Predict the structure.
Amino acid sequence: MKTDVLGIRFDNMTRQEAAQRGAQLLDEDRFHYVVTPNPEFILDSEKNPAFRQALNRADLVLPDGIGVIYAAKILGTPIKERLPGIEFAADMLKCLNLRSGRLFLLGAKPHIAEEAGAHIREQYPNIVLCGTHDGYFQDEEALFREVADARPDLIFVCLGAPKQELWMTKWGPRTGARMAIGLGGALDVFSGHTIRAPESWRRLGLEWAYRLKCEPQRFGRMARLPLVLVKATKARVAGGKGGTKRGR
Ligand code: UDP
């Protein structure tokens, strides 16, 4: 069952349900991709049909952002819980470790992916880190060949939105991987360069506020986010448009 929040169809799952579904996808011998939209994605995809299509065609669409949860509630179609991409990524690393699978890390500034890979390998020693590449490449074709030649099972694609979603739909199926996940700034976190909000802030739904405190330059980006709540309210008042539950 998908829950439509202003044009993006989210999977309505607990973290455990998403991890189980992710494990099944990792076991299937074909390409899947996972997206983790936050309110910024919803706003940006309104003006970018290719981005919206890439989000809605994903195998899993996980709500990364408390604003999505609030908007769904306003629309009268609540979503079970917020599911930060980084937590789903950690669950997939556990699965990959059990399978001694191959991981490729794509994105972030030079050397960050290598550092993230070293930390991941310390925690999940059975994972084969089959390749890394920063996210500031010019030659898409050459990068694609490098990824495909590394024969990954799982790819973390951390290029920011919509670049990562468009990369996954364009190149993902030809990489031979079983899963790619679009994860924004996750490599900065796995490498230790960015610290996630403490558990107490997360529980209060204030991860965004912590991020703003650490990265005040994000204020301009974040100032738009309440717009999602305004749009959800308007849609609800107009008769629940954009907030309908649909079968898959
Ligand atoms: N990035 C990249 N290539 C680009 C643009 C961005 O690899 O062309 C990286 C950037 O270095 C950062 C991540 O993508 O690591 C984007 O992080 P952002 O904070 O925008 O994502 P969020 O975590 O908010 O989804």
Strands lie at 2-5, 8-11, 32-35, 60-61, 102-107, 128-133, 154-158, 179-182, 245-246. Residues 107-109, 135-136, 158-160, 163, 184-185, 187-188 surround uridine-5'-diphosphate (CB under 6 Å). The chain has one domain: 2-246.
